[in-house]
């Protein structure tokens, strides 16, 4: 069975456009999973997606962003999933 | 140096979702001091899905017989396959109209924007059109606003890790802020646990642990803490799964089936009627069970079929789905699928411990008709409690707990002092994870837990598999002190991973005890494949024993509270 995907390098779900981001902290504030870290009171630094593999793909950061600088991108294993569903339904031990 | 910030309050609420916030409101109205600890940072979103709400289940008492509490209550035994605490379920249903009106008064508009009336739909096997379909984008904002106005103290990004209990009486808790590293001791006359369901518990199609149907950040913290403090849990053997577009565990099944979607197998057969005379309108547990069976029979893939629906219905569906999960349209777009015109392959989601696919049964901390658990002063509501389930269940039981605790708080004399030296080991043991090296982290513990649950405690259970799972889960528990945390955020995940493992152990223990099958794959024992009405009209109760989980049973003709030691003590006195 496929192992859980943990390597953060696998996929970054939250793309932030550095040209339009106003570095306001709202994405950090709203993220329910505590993944987005933005240095407070510093208008020079961009938010960092510190724990990308813990994203729920809820898009709350995208909805709250005042300049539409955020895009949520799904990884290939979600969009084009090939898992055999039967492998999720348990093993029978005799 | 004192390593703790000390707070004193009347009420501590763990979790600022619908249940926790609705518990806060009556407490604040009664003039009590309330502290809320919340792992997130806002009170404006639902604690189970982080977004708005697209439907709300309620009796409204508008006149017709089906809309009365009594009518729905009569159907509850059948809806729950007779595993239900009727005392608490009846109280919840009786309270539904009042709590619904109260939420309306907070500013939530349940009416359809076009017609100006309630748009009520039938789904999930319910005997009436009890689900109001509405644009609940701001549902929780209004509730959160009321809590803020009531001047509750809200500690954000703060995880409660241990309850303080003496002689079966709660008197506070220990918590830490995983952004600042501050530790708190909070003395409270009542504690409400409202931290939600158990996710990240088994594998799903994407193989991504945080791709779960409900919030992956709800990790059974309340159930684990309550258990450690001596509270009784019930129905932990019942699991819940849903049907999701393959690859994305998302909510939305209620909207799909209530608006008329079909499910078809690889032969194009609309198979649901083979499993239930209500077809796609059957209970969620039946829908999930049917799809599991179709896959096991080799009839997969299973598809969602909306092609027969009118444009108006499809428009409504498309709109509703994104209220519940904002990113679902983006998922379909990136996938290149138009669900209005094409079949969409679906999967069974990962499992969670929540409400077992039926309303009013609930899995988690057993509560009485005041929302109080078996531990005095400890309340529970929402997905972590029995009976409660879904948004309406969370709102109503939360409100019941909030009203129930007022009397308890007012009758409370002097609480034990919190001895900082005595609670220091809790902090020290936790912080020690930051100093560990090695390669055993929370991800490894969770991976092993999920693998075990998926293979042996999931939808196909038998005695041998469950015992094997318990062996593995016990062995993992022994390794927990080794867990390594890279930072404070990781330390929070370490606590979550331990809680998930403990919940898996409680689930496996309860599943082993229930030697029958109940509600299809919510509890499917392949070695006992039939429901046993003669012997198993019983609750399986789990509580902390001398050597791990202690399992008992209680006939469903009793209220669960009959098994609470505090009631036995009271009766003896």
Task: Give a structural overview.
The complex is a heterodimer of chains A (94) and B (573). Chain A is mostly loops and 94 residues long. Chain A is 15% helix and 11% strand. Chain A is built from three helices and four strands. In chain A, strands 1-4 form a two-stranded antiparallel sheet. Chain A has a two-stranded antiparallel ribbon with strand order 2-3. With 573 residues, chain B is of the alpha+beta class. Chain B is built from 16 helices and 18 strands. Chain B has helices at residues 18-29, 69-79, 86-105, 139-149, 221-228, 253-258, 272-275, 284-296, 311-324, 328-335, 390-410, 420-431, 442-457, 463-479, 488-513, 565-572, and strands spanning 4-14, 34-38, 53-57, 120-121, 131-136, 153-156, 158-166, 169-177, 183-193, 233-234, 243-245, 262-264, 302-305, 344-348, 364-365, 378-380, 538-545, 548-555. In chain B, helix 13 runs parallel beside helix 15 (488-513) and helix 14 (463-479) packs antiparallel against helix 15. The two termini of chain B are 44 Å apart. Classes of the chains: A little secondary structure (94), B alpha+beta (573). At the A-B interface, helix 2 and helix 3 of A face helix 8, helix 10, helix 13, helix 14 and helix 15 of B.
């Amino acid at each position: 069975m496929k192992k859980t995907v943990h390597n953060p390098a696998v996929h970054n779900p939250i793309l932030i456009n550095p040209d339009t981001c106003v570095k306001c902290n709202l994405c950090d504030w709203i993220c329910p999973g505590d993944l987005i870290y933005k240095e407070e009171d510093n208008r020079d630094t961009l938010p960092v997606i510190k724990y990308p593999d813990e994203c729920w793909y809820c898009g709350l950061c995208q909805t709250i962003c005042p300049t539409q600088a955020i895009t949520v991108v799904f990884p290939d294993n979600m969009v084009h999933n090939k898992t055999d569903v039967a492998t999720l339904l348990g093993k029978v031990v005799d | 140096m004192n390593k703790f910030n000390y707070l004193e309050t009347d009420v501590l609420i763990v979790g600022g979702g619908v249940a926790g916030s609705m518990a806060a409101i009556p407490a604040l109205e009664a003039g009590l001091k309330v502290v809320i600890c919340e792992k997130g940072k806002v009170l404006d979103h639902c604690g189970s899905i982080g977004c708005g709400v697209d439907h709300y289940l309620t009796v409204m008492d508008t006149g017709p017989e089906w809309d009365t509490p009594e009518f729905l209550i009569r159907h509850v035994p059948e809806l729950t396959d007779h595993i239900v605490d009727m005392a608490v379920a009846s109280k919840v249903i009786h309270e539904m109209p009042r709590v619904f009106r109260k939420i309306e008064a907070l500013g939530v508009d349940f009416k359809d924007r076009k017609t100006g009336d309630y748009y009520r739909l039938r789904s999930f096997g319910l005997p009436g059109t009890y689900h109001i379909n509405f644009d609940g984008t701001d549902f929780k904002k209004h509730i959160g606003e009321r809590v803020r106005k009531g001047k509750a103290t809200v500690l954000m990004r703060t995880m409660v890790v241990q309850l303080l209990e003496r002689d079966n009486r709660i008197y506070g808790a220990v918590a830490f802020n995983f952004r600042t590293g501050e530790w708190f001791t909070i003395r409270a006359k009542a504690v409400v646990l409202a931290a939600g369901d158990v996710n990240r518990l088994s594998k799903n199609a994407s193989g991504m642990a945080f791709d779960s149907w409900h919030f992956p950040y709800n990790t059974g913290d309340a159930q684990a803490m309550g258990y450690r403090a001596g509270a009784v849990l019930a129905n932990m053997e019942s699991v819940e799964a849903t049907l999701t577009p393959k690859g994305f565990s998302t909510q939305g099944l209620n909207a799909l089936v209530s608006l008329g979607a079909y499910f078809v197998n690889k032969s194009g057969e609309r198979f649901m009627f083979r499993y239930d005379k209500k077809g796609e309108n059957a209970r969620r547990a039946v829908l999930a069970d049917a799809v599991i069976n179709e896959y096991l029979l080799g009839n997969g893939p299973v598809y969602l079929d909306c092609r027969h629906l009118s444009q108006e219905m499809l428009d409504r569906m498309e709109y509703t789905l994104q209220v519940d999960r904002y990113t679902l349209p983006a998922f379909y777009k990136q996938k290149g699928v138009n669900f209005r015109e094409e079949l969409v392959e679906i999967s069974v989601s990962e499992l969670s411990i929540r409400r077992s696919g039926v309303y009013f049964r609930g899995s988690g901390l057993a509560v009485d008709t005041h929302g109080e658990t078996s531990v005095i002063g400890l309340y529970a509501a929402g997905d972590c409690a029995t009976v409660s389930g879904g948004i309406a269940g969370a709102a109503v039981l939360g409100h019941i707990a909030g009203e129930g605790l007022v009397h308890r708080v007012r009758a409370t004399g002097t609480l034990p002092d919190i001895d900082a030296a005595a609670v220091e080991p809790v902090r020290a043991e936790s912080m020690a994870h930051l100093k560990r090296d090695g390669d055993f982290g929370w991800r490894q513990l969770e991976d092993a837990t999920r693998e075990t649950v998926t293979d042996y405690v999931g939808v196909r259970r038998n005695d041998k598999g469950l015992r094997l799972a318990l062996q593995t889960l016990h062995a993992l528990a022994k390794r927990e002190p080794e867990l390594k945390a890279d930072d404070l955020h990781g330390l929070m995940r370490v606590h979550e991973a331990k809680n998930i493992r403990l919940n898996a152990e409680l689930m496996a223990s309860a599943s082993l005890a229930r030697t029958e099958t109940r509600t299809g794959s919510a509890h499917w024992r392949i070695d006992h494949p039939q429901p046993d009405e003669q012997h198993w009209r019983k609750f399986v109760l789990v509580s902390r024993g001398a050597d791990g989980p202690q399992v008992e049973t209680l006939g469903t003709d009793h209220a669960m509270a009959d098994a609470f030691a505090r009631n036995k003590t009271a009766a003896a006195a």
